[in-house]
């Protein structure tokens, strides 16, 4: 397939996944702050950090509040990771490859974009749950359409790889930020507030119910283990890495446990590290340090994918889609 | 209510005769419209508008913020063409396109028609769209214009006339298909029992045409659609056609000439391309042959083309046949090559290049429609009776400065079709653009794009100038009618090859 099309499918699904993740963080935090009462502006700060734009936010908005974070992450067109910006980018990518997508997928994405753009002018903060629910629903519908209507060919695998890499990145960021906030308050471990906070963390990744079935009671180690290393939960980092790798091999045609290109080598190495690690190893070596290293490795994977598949394109195409 | 006070105002109305009685082809539709409950038609119109928005059927508007998209206004009251009448149109278009293709091939090769002084050679050589770089080209099967969209209008006398030939990159066919789709989604009951000829097979026929003209490169032909990119006003159409044909939509930067072939850059390296349905203008195709500043094209493309290793559809150079001054000679062109009278008439045309005509045009400017010979999209047109004295005199100066660049025609009373205005119907002027494919044989799609001037009294139907569109229903001919069969490569062609 055309390199340019592969690039666009990859980013199209990343942007949709990103929008969905932002909606999930926001939704959980809105609920959480209802439980916690007034003095909780500090609850909004990690959200900005999770999406990775803290300095940009501080520069334009100063201290994070419920309203300013809401606006920043939903309808702020200058924030390239806000929901509306993600949708705009996803739609632009889809437009350039509209011919390669099923009509129903384009139409759903277009409706998604029009919905978010139309909502931007209205007061959604009052009905945040409804709005964010719709964002999640649209995103899930798009995944469903691509799974059930697109041939599972090269293009589809590029999309799936993009989605899983994005999801692995976001899950690790949620964990990093929340853990960082939670850890210093060791005095509070076991108090009701703590459980609420940890539940919220799991909920951000929509992982609470699945966690309960596997692990039962909430402990920090188990939460880390579940979100990073679980074999079956589709938002755990390990699960995402293994799906991304599967798609990458489908694209290159490499056999299992072999590699032909650097991206496969890096991704395979990363995935196997997650397969042969325990939660307690991560905690011992320092969660934040572990995640930091993971983020760097993930960036290398992204770079290698770009170099191999997309860069054959003359450099006219913006490389700057990566965050 | 809808049709209370409906007036035909002396124009030919496609639905009603002068006495206000529905024409037989439109009788069933008129009855259905009248029977609709109050407000129903307007509700359907709104549903259609929303469908178009959701489907993202848009065109880009030049001169606005980059990337501005607009939904092209669509009016849900269809325009109906009688089956027998369309069969005549099909025959006329086959004849015309066959002759124009011979003309293009001739002026870039033997130039017989110029030597025989049927068309003045100065007129041809002075046309900006006559490309010396195309001299001696021999496209596969001698077919130059694979895709044509010819603009027809019906004048007050009820006759169809050819207004313009578009032999370069005519656009709009995607709207023909999508308009039908939107009608079916939003107003299904209006179709009931009418035998409307389908338009949905156009992409299949286009692909067939493109594959047919592929060079013999020794593998099954790889077809692509070449677009200037998402900021082009017709981008939607480019991606639509690529999608419907199941071929890749490429931009210039996706293609490269390598080892004497045109290839596209894929995730698995370079892959050969055999046929390029290109939707960029001739002079942007190859910076090494044409405009050196073109970033849209592919350096070296024309070399590969000359060697017959890739097919371009349409071939470069076809613009010479839709130059508006050459247009005036089409009846002679048809007679010259085919020995036949034209089936479809031209609008009487004065060519300002001719000193006699120029004199006449300048004297009668206020009564005429004057058009630049090498423009499309309705740009640069003067409608004499609607112009102010200053506009007329400024325009006269332009004509004197460059007479070759202008032609003049009488003001036509374009036919009208009932169109929704607020909560009722009023007559609005329309044209008709049927689409013609020329590969193994010449195929005329039974349908076409009906463009409608939405502003009251306006004669300009172009999308860039306040025009909209309508679904065009070509009815099946009654039993044994020709239009029910697949149109063949017929009389004009068979008897003269």
Kindly describe this structure.
The complex is a heterodimer of chains A (323) and B (497). Chain A is mainly α. Chain A has two domains: 1-150, no CATH class; 151-313, no CATH class. Chain A contains 15 helices and no strands. The longest helix of chain A is centred in the first third of the chain and has 34 residues, at 3-36. Chain A is globular, with a radius of gyration of 19 Å. The relative contact order of chain A is 0.11. The model of chain A is unreliable at 313-320 (pLDDT under 50). Chain B contains 14 helices and 24 strands. Chain B starts with 26 loop residues before the first helix and ends with a helix. Classes of the chains: A mainly alpha (323), B alpha+beta (497). Chain A binds chain B through residues 1-6, 92, 95-101, 103, 106-107, 110-111, 114, 154, 251, 309, 312-314, 316-317, and chain B through 53-56, 225, 229-230, 235-236, 238-243, 247-251, 253-254, 264-267, 269.
Tally of strands of chain A: 0
Contiguous runs where pLDDT drops below 50 for at least 5 residues of chain B: 480-497
- Structural class of chain B, please? alpha+beta
CATH architecture of the domain at 216-309 in chain B: 3-Layer(aba) Sandwich
Low-confidence stretches of chain A: 313-320
Query: What does the overall shape of chain B look like?
Result: globular
Helix percentage of chain B? 25-40%
Total strand segments of chain B? 24
The strand order across the widest sheet of chain B is 8-7-12-13
Rg value of chain A:
19 Å
Beta-sheet strand percentage of chain B? 15-25%
Q: Report the span from N to C terminus of chain A.
A: 25 Å
Beta-strand fraction estimate of chain A:
under 5%
Gyration radius of chain B (Cα, Å) is 23 Å
Count of individual helical segments of chain B: 14
What is the arithmetic mean of pLDDT of chain A? 86
Biggest interface: chains and residue counts? A-B, 28 and 27 residues
Name of the CATH class of the domain at 216-309 in chain B: Alpha Beta
Helical segment count of chain A: 15
């Amino acid at each position: 397939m055309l390199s340019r099309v592969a690039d666009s499918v990859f980013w199209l699904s990343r942007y949709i996944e990103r929008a969905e993740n932002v909606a999930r963080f926001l939704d959980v935090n809105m609920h959480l702050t209802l439980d916690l009462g007034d003095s909780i502006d500090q609850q909004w700060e990690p959200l900005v950090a999770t999406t990775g734009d803290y300095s940009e936010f501080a520069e334009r908005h100063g201290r994070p509040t419920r309203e300013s974070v809401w606006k920043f992450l939903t309808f702020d067109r200058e924030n390239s990771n806000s929901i509306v910006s993600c949708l705009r980018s996803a739609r632009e990518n889809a437009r350039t490859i509209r011919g390669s997508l099923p009509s129903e997928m384009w139409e759903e994405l277009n409706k998604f974009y029009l919905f978010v753009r139309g909502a931007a002018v209205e007061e959604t903060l009052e009905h945040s749950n409804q709005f964010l629910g719709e964002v999640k629903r649209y995103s899930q519908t798009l995944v469903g359409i691509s799974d059930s209507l697109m041939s599972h060919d090269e293009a589809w695998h590029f999309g799936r790889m993009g989605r899983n890499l994005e999801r692995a990145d976001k899950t690790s960021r949620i964990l990093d930020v929340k853990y960082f906030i939670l850890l210093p308050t060791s005095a509070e471990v076991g108090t009701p507030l703590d459980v609420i906070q940890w539940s919220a963390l799991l909920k951000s990744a929509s992982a609470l119910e699945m966690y309960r079935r596997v692990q039962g009671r909430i402990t920090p180690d188990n939460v880390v283990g579940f979100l990073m290393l679980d074999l079956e939960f589709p938002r755990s980092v390990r699960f995402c890495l293994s799906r991304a790798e599967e798609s990458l091999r489908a694209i290159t045609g490499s056999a299992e446990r072999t590699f032909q290109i650097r991206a496969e080598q890096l991704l395979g190495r990363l995935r196997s590290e997650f397969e042969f690690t325990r939660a307690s190893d991560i905690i011992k070596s320092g969660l934040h340090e572990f995640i930091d290293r993971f983020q760097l490795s993930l960036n290398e994977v992204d770079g290698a994918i770009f170099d191999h598949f997309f860069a054959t394109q003359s450099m006219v195409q913006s490389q700057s889609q990566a965050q | 209510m809808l049709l209370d006070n409906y007036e035909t105002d002396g124009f030919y109305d496609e639905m009603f005769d002068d006495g206000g009685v529905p024409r037989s082809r439109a009788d069933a539709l008129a009855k259905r419209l009248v029977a609709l409950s109050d407000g129903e038609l307007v509700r359907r119109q709104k549903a259609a508008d929303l469908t178009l928005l959701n489907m993202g059927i848009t065109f880009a508007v030049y001169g606005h913020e980059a990337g501005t998209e607009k939904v092209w206004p669509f009016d849900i009251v269809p325009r109906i063409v009688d089956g027998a009448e369309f069969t005549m149109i099909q025959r006329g278009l086959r004849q015309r396109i066959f002759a124009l293709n011979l003309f293009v091939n001739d002026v870039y090769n033997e130039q017989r028609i110029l030597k025989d002084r049927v068309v003045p050679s100065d007129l041809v050589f002075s046309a900006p769209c006559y490309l010396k770089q195309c001299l001696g080209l021999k496209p596969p099967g001698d077919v130059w214009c694979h895709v044509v969209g010819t603009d027809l209008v019906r004048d007050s006398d009820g006759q169809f006339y050819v207004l313009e030939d578009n032999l370069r990159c005519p656009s709009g066919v995607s709207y023909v298909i999508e308009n039908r789709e939107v009608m079916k989604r939003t107003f299904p009951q209006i179709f009931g029992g009418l035998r409307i000829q389908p338009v949905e097979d156009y992409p299949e026929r286009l692909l067939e045409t493109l594959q047919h003209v592929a060079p013999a490169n020794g593998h099954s032909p790889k077809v692509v659609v070449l677009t200037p990119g998402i900021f082009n006003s017709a981008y939607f159409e480019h991606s639509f056609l690529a999608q419907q044909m199941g071929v890749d939509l490429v931009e210039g930067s996706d293609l490269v000439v390598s080892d004497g072939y045109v290839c596209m850059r894929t995730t698995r390296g370079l892959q050969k391309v055999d046929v390029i349905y290109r939707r960029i203008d001739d002079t942007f195709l190859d910076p090494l042959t044409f405009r050196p500043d073109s970033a849209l094209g592919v350096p070296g493309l024309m070399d590969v083309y000359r060697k017959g290793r890739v097919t371009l559809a349409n071939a470069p150079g076809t613009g010479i046949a839709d130059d508006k001054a050459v247009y005036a000679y089409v009846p002679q062109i048809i007679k010259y090559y085919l020995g036949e009278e034209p089936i479809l008439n031209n609008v009487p045309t004065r060519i300002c290049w001719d000193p006699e005509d120029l004199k006449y045009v300048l004297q009668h400017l206020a009564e005429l429609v004057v058009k630049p010979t090498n423009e499309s999209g309705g740009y640069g047109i003067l409608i004499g009776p609607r112009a102010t004295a200053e506009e007329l005199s400024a325009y006269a100066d332009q004509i004197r400065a460059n007479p070759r660049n202008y032609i003049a025609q009488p003001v036509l009373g374009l036919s009208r079709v009932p169109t929704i205005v607020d909560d009722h119907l009023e007559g609005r002027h329309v044209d008709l653009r049927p689409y013609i494919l020329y590969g193994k044989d010449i195929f005329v799609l039974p349908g076409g794009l009906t463009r409608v001037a939405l502003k009251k009294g306006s004669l300009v139907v172009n999308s860039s100038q306040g025009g909209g569109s309508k679904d065009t229903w070509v009815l099946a001919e009654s039993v044994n009618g020709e239009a029910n069969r697949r149109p063949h490569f017929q009389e004009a062609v068979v008897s003269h090859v």
